[in-house]
Amino acid sequence: MIYSGLYFDTLPRHNASGDSLIRLRLTVLEKLDIYIHSTKNCKPPVGYTLQCSSYQASYCRWSAEPQDTSLDTQNHGLAVTVNPLKPTTYSLYADYREAPPQCPSSASIVINPIQPVVAGLRINPAILDYDNLILRAEDYSVGNRTAPYGGWAGRNWYINGELQPHRDSLALFQIPPDAPDTIDLLMEAYSPTCLDTSFRRIPFRRVALFFPNCFTPQAESNNRFAPQPQGILQYEIWIYSRRGILIYHDTNPLPGWDGTYQGRPCPQDTYTYHCRYRDAATPNGWQHLHGTVTLIR
Questions:
Q1: Which of 120, 123, 163, 271 would bridge 140 by S-S if both were Cys, CB 3.0 to 4.6 A apart?
Q2: Which helix or strand (DSSP H or E) is residue 189 part of?
Q3: Residues 136, 32: Cα–Cα separation, whole Å
Q4: Are 239 and 260 in contact (CB under 8 A)?
Q5: What is the pLDDT of residue 192?
Q6: What are phi and psi of 71, to 5 degrees?
Q7: CA separation (Å) from 110 to 50, 54, 75, 82, 266?
Q8: Closest residue by Cα to residue 171 from 110, 122, 244, 130
Q9: For residues 136 and 122, what is the distance between their CA atoms, to the nearest angstrom?
């Protein structure tokens, strides 16, 4: 009989008192086909759950090489929890019952120590704009980088879901001016056994104030000192002469300063301006700009 199941057989028996028949009821058990399924947990409590795959087995016995004392209290369970400190071979002996053996089977698996990783990163700047298109990202993950059984492995950087060629702990990313309104940065930090991720969403502030560095009131073009604003909610500017006299103030970037003070033309010279503005990315805070402009006559 090569198939498991319930069988019946009849055997003749001969003795002095006469012949008789013996009816046999035979149960053929299927040989246990088992393997060990391992589930890894990189978060506390760190370790592995080892599970016997066969639901038919009613008797299990675990052993480890080198010895794992944590098995002493869970030696006969269908599932055990382990956290080896060095590579360990776990073996499982399984049967339908403890004794006598009926259809024993065994399996083994090699488990390496867990190397947990907690991913962390720092970025600069926190908000991107046209003046800050280089994103600096630094890996500040926590993990055992000198572990004897593998230790730290590395990291992957992703920008808006796209894997980047950088692999170093410090990465500089050139963000194009036509990038989306938000930049999603994801870092995967991994060891031979564990992986963790850290994520940042960086706003791209599409704000710009372009000031000319000189102007000529008598010219057909560029005859006013007026910025070209983009994405500005609120604006204010002060312009001072070389002697510190306030000669111009306005809360509207247009039409701009025409080069006069109290109705009279200002002399050719270099003037200092201070501008503040608010934009959609930082509506509750003011941004400040300082510079100089040359009036040419």
A1: 120
A2: strand 182-190
A3: 57
A4: no
A5: 86
A6: -75, -15
A7: 11, 19, 17, 12, 85
A8: 122
A9: 8
Pairing outcome for strands 195-205 and 128-129: parallel
DSSP state of 76: T
Q: What are phi and psi of 73, to 5 degrees?
A: -95, 0
Give the amino acid at 64: A
Q: How is residue 119 written in tokens?
A: 């991913």
Q: pLDDT tens digits, residue range 197-214?
A: 999 999 887 766 788 899
Where b means 16+ CB within 10 Å and e means fewer, 255-283 reads ebbebeeeeeebeeeebebebebbbebee
The two structure tokens encoding residue 237: 């500017």
Q: Which of 9-18, 40-49, 162-171 has the lowest mean pLDDT?
A: 9-18
Pull the structure tokens for residue 149.
Answer: 């059984």
CA angle, corner 117, sides to 114 and 121, nearest 5? 175
pLDDT in tens, 82-122: 999 999 999 999 988 877 777 789 999 999 999 889 999 99
Token pair in block for residue 113: 């120590």
For residue 163, which phi and psi values (nearest 5 degrees)? -65, 130
